[in-house]
Protein backbone atom coordinates (compact mmCIF):
# COMPACT_ATOMS: atom_id res chain seq x y z
CA UNK A 1 0.00 0.00 0.00
CA UNK A 2 1.25 3.44 -0.85
CA UNK A 3 1.21 5.90 1.97
CA UNK A 4 -0.39 9.06 0.61
CA UNK A 5 1.00 11.29 3.25
CA UNK A 6 3.21 13.99 1.92
CA UNK A 7 1.43 15.56 -0.97
CA UNK A 8 -1.26 15.05 -3.56
CA UNK A 9 0.43 17.10 -6.25
CA UNK A 10 2.19 15.42 -9.16
CA UNK A 11 5.82 16.48 -9.42
CA UNK A 12 7.18 17.18 -12.90
CA UNK A 13 10.59 15.77 -12.14
CA UNK A 14 11.84 12.21 -12.02
CA UNK A 15 13.03 12.09 -8.46
CA UNK A 16 10.45 13.66 -6.24
CA UNK A 17 8.72 13.37 -2.94
CA UNK A 18 6.03 11.12 -4.39
CA UNK A 19 8.26 8.45 -5.82
CA UNK A 20 9.25 6.70 -2.63
CA UNK A 21 11.39 4.22 -4.53
CA UNK A 22 14.64 4.46 -2.63
CA UNK A 23 15.24 2.31 0.41
CA UNK A 24 16.12 3.57 3.86
CA UNK A 25 19.53 1.89 3.45
CA UNK A 26 20.20 4.01 0.35
CA UNK A 27 19.17 7.12 2.25
CA UNK A 28 21.46 6.26 5.15
CA UNK A 29 24.34 5.85 2.69
CA UNK A 30 23.65 9.22 1.09
CA UNK A 31 23.40 10.95 4.46
CA UNK A 32 26.59 9.27 5.72
CA UNK A 33 28.50 10.45 2.65
CA UNK A 34 27.43 14.06 3.23
CA UNK A 35 28.25 13.75 6.90
CA UNK A 36 31.77 12.43 6.16
CA UNK A 37 32.40 15.28 3.73
CA UNK A 38 31.23 17.77 6.32
CA UNK A 39 33.51 16.36 9.02
CA UNK A 40 36.49 16.44 6.66
CA UNK A 41 35.79 20.08 5.80
CA UNK A 42 36.14 21.20 9.40
CA UNK A 43 33.59 23.99 8.89
CA UNK A 44 30.91 25.01 11.37
CA UNK A 45 27.33 24.87 10.10
CA UNK A 46 24.62 25.83 12.53
CA UNK A 47 21.66 25.85 10.14
CA UNK A 48 20.22 23.15 7.88
CA UNK A 49 21.57 22.89 4.36
CA UNK A 50 19.03 24.13 1.84
CA UNK A 51 20.62 21.85 -0.75
CA UNK A 52 20.20 18.45 0.89
CA UNK A 53 19.28 15.84 -1.70
CA UNK A 54 18.30 13.08 0.76
CA UNK A 55 15.25 15.28 1.45
CA UNK A 56 13.92 14.79 -2.08
CA UNK A 57 11.51 17.71 -2.09
CA UNK A 58 14.45 20.09 -1.59
CA UNK A 59 16.08 19.19 -4.91
CA UNK A 60 14.19 21.74 -6.99
CA UNK A 61 13.34 24.07 -4.14
CA UNK A 62 16.71 25.29 -2.91
CA UNK A 63 18.41 28.41 -4.28
CA UNK A 64 21.65 27.56 -6.05
CA UNK A 65 23.25 30.94 -5.35
CA UNK A 66 24.49 32.00 -1.94
CA UNK A 67 22.27 34.52 -0.19
CA UNK A 68 23.35 38.11 -0.73
CA UNK A 69 24.73 39.75 2.41
CA UNK A 70 23.13 43.09 3.03
CA UNK A 71 22.91 45.63 5.82
CA UNK A 72 19.47 45.62 7.40
CA UNK A 73 17.36 48.71 6.74
CA UNK A 74 14.87 50.26 9.16
CA UNK A 75 11.97 47.92 8.44
CA UNK A 76 14.24 44.89 8.86
CA UNK A 77 15.29 46.10 12.30
CA UNK A 78 11.71 45.95 13.55
CA UNK A 79 9.12 43.20 13.85
CA UNK A 80 5.33 43.15 13.96
CA UNK A 81 3.76 43.56 17.39
CA UNK A 82 1.29 41.00 18.72
CA UNK A 83 -0.85 41.42 21.81
CA UNK A 84 -3.76 40.18 23.87
CA UNK A 85 -6.04 41.04 21.00
CA UNK A 86 -4.24 38.56 18.76
CA UNK A 87 -3.83 35.67 21.17
CA UNK A 88 -6.12 34.36 23.91
CA UNK A 89 -4.37 32.89 26.95
CA UNK A 90 -6.31 29.61 26.58
CA UNK A 91 -4.71 29.01 23.18
CA UNK A 92 -1.55 27.72 24.91
CA UNK A 93 -3.44 24.66 26.20
CA UNK A 94 -4.02 22.28 23.28
CA UNK A 95 -5.83 19.79 25.51
CA UNK A 96 -8.87 21.95 26.23
CA UNK A 97 -9.74 23.28 22.82
CA UNK A 98 -12.58 21.07 21.67
CA UNK A 99 -14.60 20.16 24.70
CA UNK A 100 -13.43 16.62 25.41
CA UNK A 101 -10.03 15.34 26.46
CA UNK A 102 -7.68 14.34 23.65
CA UNK A 103 -6.12 10.87 23.80
CA UNK A 104 -2.40 10.49 24.46
CA UNK A 105 0.41 11.36 26.80
CA UNK A 106 -0.26 14.81 28.31
CA UNK A 107 2.91 16.92 28.34
CA UNK A 108 4.06 20.47 28.99
CA UNK A 109 6.68 22.10 26.77
CA UNK A 110 8.32 25.16 28.34
CA UNK A 111 11.36 27.23 27.63
CA UNK A 112 12.81 30.66 27.00
CA UNK A 113 13.38 32.52 23.77
CA UNK A 114 16.43 34.77 23.68
CA UNK A 115 18.38 36.54 20.97
CA UNK A 116 22.04 35.97 20.10
CA UNK A 117 23.13 38.16 22.99
CA UNK A 118 20.97 36.34 25.50
CA UNK A 119 18.34 39.09 25.72
CA UNK A 120 14.83 37.74 26.29
CA UNK A 121 12.40 38.08 23.39
CA UNK A 122 9.47 39.64 25.22
CA UNK A 123 5.75 39.69 24.38
CA UNK A 124 6.30 38.05 21.05
CA UNK A 125 4.18 35.51 19.18
CA UNK A 126 4.91 31.76 19.36
CA UNK A 127 2.82 29.41 17.21
CA UNK A 128 2.96 25.60 17.29
CA UNK A 129 1.33 22.80 15.33
CA UNK A 130 1.71 19.05 15.48
CA UNK A 131 0.28 15.61 14.77
CA UNK A 132 -1.90 13.89 17.35
CA UNK A 133 -0.81 10.94 19.50
CA UNK A 134 -1.39 8.57 16.56
CA UNK A 135 0.77 10.61 14.16
CA UNK A 136 -2.11 12.19 12.24
CA UNK A 137 -2.51 15.86 11.37
CA UNK A 138 -5.86 17.56 10.94
CA UNK A 139 -5.03 18.48 7.38
CA UNK A 140 -6.98 17.47 4.32
CA UNK A 141 -3.81 16.31 2.60
CA UNK A 142 -2.74 14.07 5.46
CA UNK A 143 -4.06 10.67 4.39
CA UNK A 144 -2.08 8.58 6.88
CA UNK A 145 -4.52 5.84 7.96
CA UNK A 146 -4.30 6.66 11.65
CA UNK A 147 -7.25 7.95 13.67
CA UNK A 148 -8.15 11.61 13.86
CA UNK A 149 -8.77 12.72 17.43
CA UNK A 150 -11.98 14.79 17.46
CA UNK A 151 -10.75 16.55 20.63
CA UNK A 152 -7.37 17.63 19.29
CA UNK A 153 -6.52 20.19 16.62
CA UNK A 154 -2.79 20.23 17.38
CA UNK A 155 -2.63 24.03 16.98
CA UNK A 156 -1.52 26.41 19.74
CA UNK A 157 -0.35 29.99 20.23
CA UNK A 158 1.03 32.09 23.04
CA UNK A 159 2.88 35.33 23.73
CA UNK A 160 6.24 35.18 25.50
CA UNK A 161 6.56 36.64 28.99
CA UNK A 162 8.87 39.46 30.06
CA UNK A 163 11.65 36.93 30.56
CA UNK A 164 11.13 35.44 27.09
CA UNK A 165 9.38 32.38 28.53
CA UNK A 166 6.71 30.35 26.80
CA UNK A 167 4.72 27.30 27.87
CA UNK A 168 2.29 24.94 26.13
CA UNK A 169 0.25 22.01 27.46
CA UNK A 170 -0.34 19.43 24.75
CA UNK A 171 -0.28 15.74 23.84
CA UNK A 172 2.93 14.03 22.81
CA UNK A 173 2.76 13.68 19.01
CA UNK A 174 3.32 10.33 17.32
CA UNK A 175 5.83 9.67 14.52
CA UNK A 176 4.28 9.45 11.07
CA UNK A 177 5.06 8.00 7.65
CA UNK A 178 5.84 10.10 4.59
CA UNK A 179 6.79 9.47 0.99
CA UNK A 180 10.39 10.64 0.81
CA UNK A 181 11.52 7.03 0.36
CA UNK A 182 10.24 3.55 1.13
CA UNK A 183 9.17 3.07 4.74
CA UNK A 184 10.11 6.64 5.64
CA UNK A 185 9.05 7.85 9.10
CA UNK A 186 9.45 11.28 10.63
CA UNK A 187 10.56 11.37 14.26
CA UNK A 188 7.87 12.81 16.54
CA UNK A 189 8.07 16.59 16.46
CA UNK A 190 6.28 19.84 17.21
CA UNK A 191 6.52 22.68 14.66
CA UNK A 192 7.44 26.08 16.13
CA UNK A 193 6.97 29.45 14.41
CA UNK A 194 8.90 32.31 16.04
CA UNK A 195 9.30 36.07 15.78
CA UNK A 196 12.05 38.19 17.30
CA UNK A 197 12.60 41.91 17.78
CA UNK A 198 13.88 42.20 14.20
CA UNK A 199 12.03 40.65 11.28
CA UNK A 200 15.34 39.15 10.16
CA UNK A 201 15.08 36.82 13.17
CA UNK A 202 11.87 35.27 11.86
CA UNK A 203 12.13 31.50 11.87
CA UNK A 204 10.19 28.26 11.68
CA UNK A 205 11.63 25.06 13.08
CA UNK A 206 10.77 21.70 14.66
CA UNK A 207 11.27 20.51 18.22
CA UNK A 208 12.05 16.83 18.76
CA UNK A 209 11.88 14.50 21.76
CA UNK A 210 14.98 12.99 23.40
CA UNK A 211 16.20 9.53 22.40
CA UNK A 212 14.08 9.12 19.26
CA UNK A 213 15.32 6.06 17.31
CA UNK A 214 14.28 7.74 14.04
CA UNK A 215 16.82 10.62 14.27
CA UNK A 216 19.50 8.75 12.31
CA UNK A 217 17.01 7.83 9.59
CA UNK A 218 15.39 11.22 8.99
CA UNK A 219 16.75 13.46 6.20
CA UNK A 220 14.98 16.58 7.51
CA UNK A 221 16.66 16.29 10.91
CA UNK A 222 19.96 15.21 9.30
CA UNK A 223 19.92 18.21 6.94
CA UNK A 224 21.57 19.98 9.87
CA UNK A 225 24.85 18.22 9.23
CA UNK A 226 26.60 19.19 12.47
CA UNK A 227 25.48 16.81 15.26
CA UNK A 228 25.88 19.53 17.92
CA UNK A 229 23.70 21.91 15.92
CA UNK A 230 20.86 19.45 15.30
CA UNK A 231 20.93 18.41 18.94
CA UNK A 232 19.74 21.98 19.70
CA UNK A 233 16.34 20.96 18.34
CA UNK A 234 15.91 18.19 20.91
CA UNK A 235 14.04 19.04 24.09
CA UNK A 236 15.17 17.65 27.44
CA UNK A 237 12.93 15.82 29.85
CA UNK A 238 12.63 18.02 32.96
CA UNK A 239 11.14 16.34 36.01
CA UNK A 240 10.71 19.71 37.72
CA UNK A 241 8.23 20.60 34.97
CA UNK A 242 6.30 17.35 35.40
CA UNK A 243 3.20 17.59 37.56
CA UNK A 244 2.02 15.04 40.11
CA UNK A 245 -0.51 12.66 38.56
CA UNK A 246 -1.04 15.06 35.65
CA UNK A 247 1.66 15.50 32.98
CA UNK A 248 5.31 15.10 31.97
CA UNK A 249 7.49 18.16 31.35
CA UNK A 250 9.92 18.94 28.55
CA UNK A 251 12.19 21.97 28.38
CA UNK A 252 13.31 23.53 25.12
CA UNK A 253 15.12 26.87 24.99
CA UNK A 254 15.40 28.74 21.72
CA UNK A 255 18.08 31.19 20.53
CA UNK A 256 17.11 33.44 17.64
CA UNK A 257 19.88 34.79 15.48
CA UNK A 258 21.41 37.95 16.89
CA UNK A 259 19.51 41.22 16.77
CA UNK A 260 21.19 43.93 14.76
CA UNK A 261 19.21 46.69 16.37
CA UNK A 262 20.96 49.05 18.76
CA UNK A 263 18.81 48.72 21.82
CA UNK A 264 17.76 51.77 23.73
CA UNK A 265 16.23 52.31 27.17
CA UNK A 266 12.94 52.76 25.34
CA UNK A 267 13.13 49.28 23.89
CA UNK A 268 13.87 47.65 27.20
CA UNK A 269 10.96 49.43 28.88
CA UNK A 270 8.21 49.35 26.33
CA UNK B 1 21.62 48.78 28.58
CA UNK B 2 25.12 47.33 28.30
CA UNK B 3 25.78 45.50 25.08
CA UNK B 4 26.62 41.89 25.80
CA UNK B 5 29.28 40.89 23.30
CA UNK B 6 28.89 37.15 23.81
CA UNK B 7 27.04 35.56 20.92
CA UNK B 8 24.90 32.52 21.55
CA UNK B 9 24.61 29.95 18.80
CA UNK B 10 21.22 30.23 17.12
CA UNK B 11 18.75 27.35 17.09
CA UNK B 12 18.55 25.82 13.60
CA UNK B 13 15.51 26.26 11.39
CA UNK B 14 13.59 23.44 9.72
CA UNK B 15 11.14 23.19 6.86
CA UNK B 16 7.56 24.32 7.45
CA UNK B 17 6.54 20.90 6.03
CA UNK B 18 3.29 20.15 4.20
CA UNK B 19 0.74 20.43 7.00
CA UNK B 20 0.85 24.04 8.19
CA UNK B 21 -2.29 24.95 6.27
CA UNK B 22 -4.72 24.55 9.16
CA UNK B 23 -2.32 26.12 11.66
CA UNK B 24 -0.59 29.26 10.37
CA UNK B 25 -2.68 31.00 7.67
CA UNK B 26 -5.57 32.89 9.24
CA UNK B 27 -8.64 34.75 8.10
CA UNK B 28 -7.70 38.19 6.81
CA UNK B 29 -3.99 37.40 6.79
CA UNK B 30 -3.54 38.73 3.26
CA UNK B 31 -5.43 41.97 3.93
CA UNK B 32 -3.01 44.53 5.40
CA UNK B 33 -5.75 46.99 4.47
CA UNK B 34 -9.34 46.19 3.46
CA UNK B 35 -10.24 46.09 -0.23
CA UNK B 36 -12.28 49.24 0.35
CA UNK B 37 -9.23 51.26 1.45
CA UNK B 38 -8.90 54.20 -0.98
CA UNK B 39 -5.22 53.44 -1.64
CA UNK B 40 -5.48 49.66 -1.57
CA UNK B 41 -2.89 48.00 -3.81
CA UNK B 42 -2.90 44.41 -4.94
CA UNK B 43 0.46 42.65 -4.56
CA UNK B 44 0.36 39.40 -6.49
CA UNK B 45 2.64 36.77 -7.93
CA UNK B 46 3.50 33.11 -8.28
CA UNK B 47 6.09 30.88 -6.62
CA UNK B 48 8.15 28.60 -8.91
CA UNK B 49 10.61 25.74 -8.45
CA UNK B 50 13.81 25.04 -10.39
CA UNK B 51 11.94 23.53 -13.34
CA UNK B 52 9.60 26.49 -13.58
CA UNK B 53 6.74 24.48 -12.08
CA UNK B 54 4.46 26.33 -9.71
CA UNK B 55 4.73 25.43 -6.03
CA UNK B 56 1.34 24.79 -4.41
CA UNK B 57 2.55 24.52 -0.82
CA UNK B 58 4.50 27.66 0.00
CA UNK B 59 3.59 30.26 2.61
CA UNK B 60 4.58 33.91 2.28
CA UNK B 61 4.80 36.72 4.81
CA UNK B 62 5.32 40.40 4.20
CA UNK B 63 6.35 43.17 6.59
CA UNK B 64 6.40 46.80 5.51
CA UNK B 65 6.12 50.45 6.48
CA UNK B 66 2.90 52.40 5.85
CA UNK B 67 2.40 54.94 3.06
CA UNK B 68 4.34 57.55 5.03
CA UNK B 69 7.27 55.28 5.70
CA UNK B 70 6.25 54.78 9.32
CA UNK B 71 6.88 51.38 10.94
CA UNK B 72 3.77 50.20 12.77
CA UNK B 73 4.02 49.15 16.40
CA UNK B 74 0.33 48.25 16.57
CA UNK B 75 -0.80 44.72 17.45
CA UNK B 76 -3.79 43.17 15.72
CA UNK B 77 -2.37 41.40 12.66
CA UNK B 78 -4.09 38.13 13.65
CA UNK B 79 -7.45 39.76 14.46
CA UNK B 80 -7.78 42.62 12.02
CA UNK B 81 -10.11 45.47 12.93
CA UNK B 82 -10.14 46.96 9.42
CA UNK B 83 -8.73 50.29 10.62
CA UNK B 84 -5.31 49.63 12.11
CA UNK B 85 -2.31 49.23 9.81
CA UNK B 86 -0.04 46.63 11.43
CA UNK B 87 2.35 46.21 8.49
CA UNK B 88 2.30 42.40 8.60
CA UNK B 89 0.60 39.92 6.28
CA UNK B 90 0.63 36.16 5.78
CA UNK B 91 -0.84 34.03 3.01
CA UNK B 92 -0.61 30.47 1.73
CA UNK B 93 -0.27 30.22 -2.05
CA UNK B 94 -3.14 28.51 -3.87
CA UNK B 95 -2.99 25.25 -5.85
CA UNK B 96 -1.50 27.16 -8.78
CA UNK B 97 1.25 28.67 -6.64
CA UNK B 98 -0.38 32.10 -6.82
CA UNK B 99 -0.65 34.61 -3.99
CA UNK B 100 -2.43 37.92 -3.38
CA UNK B 101 -1.91 40.52 -0.70
CA UNK B 102 -3.97 43.69 -0.38
CA UNK B 103 -1.82 46.46 1.03
CA UNK B 104 -0.61 50.02 0.40
CA UNK B 105 2.56 51.22 -1.30
CA UNK B 106 5.12 51.61 1.48
CA UNK B 107 6.75 55.01 1.80
CA UNK B 108 10.52 55.40 2.23
CA UNK B 109 11.51 54.90 5.89
CA UNK B 110 14.11 57.68 5.45
CA UNK B 111 14.13 60.47 2.88
CA UNK B 112 15.71 59.35 -0.37
CA UNK B 113 15.59 55.63 0.45
CA UNK B 114 14.06 53.22 -2.03
CA UNK B 115 10.83 51.88 -0.51
CA UNK B 116 10.46 48.10 -0.36
CA UNK B 117 8.36 45.37 1.21
CA UNK B 118 10.23 42.63 3.07
CA UNK B 119 9.13 39.11 2.15
CA UNK B 120 9.77 35.77 3.86
CA UNK B 121 9.28 32.52 1.96
CA UNK B 122 8.46 29.18 3.60
CA UNK B 123 7.62 25.93 1.85
CA UNK B 124 7.61 22.19 1.88
CA UNK B 125 10.98 21.16 0.45
CA UNK B 126 12.56 24.41 1.62
CA UNK B 127 14.66 23.52 4.67
CA UNK B 128 14.86 27.05 6.06
CA UNK B 129 13.03 30.31 5.42
CA UNK B 130 14.28 32.76 2.81
CA UNK B 131 14.25 36.56 2.93
CA UNK B 132 13.90 38.85 -0.04
CA UNK B 133 12.88 42.45 -0.80
CA UNK B 134 10.12 43.68 -3.10
CA UNK B 135 11.16 47.13 -4.31
CA UNK B 136 8.59 49.53 -5.76
CA UNK B 137 9.57 50.35 -9.36
CA UNK B 138 8.79 54.10 -9.43
CA UNK B 139 11.58 56.02 -7.70
CA UNK B 140 14.38 55.22 -10.14
CA UNK B 141 16.78 57.66 -8.51
CA UNK B 142 16.38 56.01 -5.11
CA UNK B 143 16.65 52.57 -6.72
CA UNK B 144 19.86 53.69 -8.39
CA UNK B 145 21.31 54.72 -5.02
CA UNK B 146 20.23 51.60 -3.16
CA UNK B 147 23.30 49.79 -1.78
CA UNK B 148 21.88 46.30 -2.27
CA UNK B 149 20.58 46.86 -5.79
CA UNK B 150 23.82 48.58 -6.80
CA UNK B 151 25.77 45.46 -5.83
CA UNK B 152 23.76 43.24 -8.19
CA UNK B 153 23.92 42.46 -11.89
CA UNK B 154 21.08 43.85 -14.00
CA UNK B 155 19.50 40.42 -14.17
CA UNK B 156 19.67 39.85 -10.41
CA UNK B 157 18.42 43.36 -9.75
CA UNK B 158 15.33 42.74 -11.85
CA UNK B 159 14.31 39.84 -9.59
CA UNK B 160 13.85 42.27 -6.69
CA UNK B 161 11.91 45.06 -8.38
CA UNK B 162 8.17 44.55 -8.63
CA UNK B 163 6.37 45.22 -11.89
CA UNK B 164 3.58 47.82 -11.79
CA UNK B 165 0.66 46.54 -13.84
CA UNK B 166 -1.83 48.76 -15.62
CA UNK B 167 -4.46 48.33 -12.93
CA UNK B 168 -1.99 49.67 -10.36
CA UNK B 169 -1.22 46.29 -8.84
CA UNK B 170 2.29 45.06 -8.12
CA UNK B 171 3.55 41.80 -9.58
CA UNK B 172 6.36 39.95 -7.86
CA UNK B 173 7.16 36.32 -8.68
CA UNK B 174 9.41 34.16 -6.54
CA UNK B 175 11.77 31.70 -8.25
CA UNK B 176 13.39 29.43 -5.68
CA UNK B 177 15.82 28.12 -8.28
CA UNK B 178 16.65 28.23 -11.97
CA UNK B 179 17.32 30.79 -14.66
CA UNK B 180 15.32 33.55 -12.97
CA UNK B 181 16.32 32.63 -9.41
CA UNK B 182 15.25 35.37 -7.01
CA UNK B 183 18.02 37.07 -5.05
CA UNK B 184 17.64 36.02 -1.41
CA UNK B 185 19.23 37.87 1.46
CA UNK B 186 21.29 37.27 4.55
CA UNK B 187 22.13 39.88 7.12
CA UNK B 188 25.39 40.68 8.83
CA UNK B 189 25.46 39.09 12.27
CA UNK B 190 22.56 36.87 11.34
CA UNK B 191 22.55 33.55 9.58
Order of helices and strands of chain B: EEEEEEHHHEEEE
Question: Structural class from helices and strands of chain B?
Answer: mainly beta
Radius of gyration of chain A: 20 Å
Straight-line N-to-C gap of chain B? 24 Å
The backbone outline of chain B, from C-alpha atoms, is: globular
Helix content of chain B: under 10%
Q: What separation lies between the terminal Cα atoms of chain A? A: 57 Å
- Quick one: how many beta strands of chain B? 10
Mean pLDDT of chain A: 90
What structural class is derived from the secondary structure elements of chain A? alpha+beta
Major sheet attributes of chain B: 5 strands, mixed
Biggest interface: chains and residue counts?
Answer: A-B, 92 and 82 residues
- Please count the beta strands of chain A (DSSP E, at least 2 residues each): 12
Low-confidence stretches of chain B: none
List the total number of helices of chain B.
Answer: 3
Radius of gyration of chain B: 17 Å
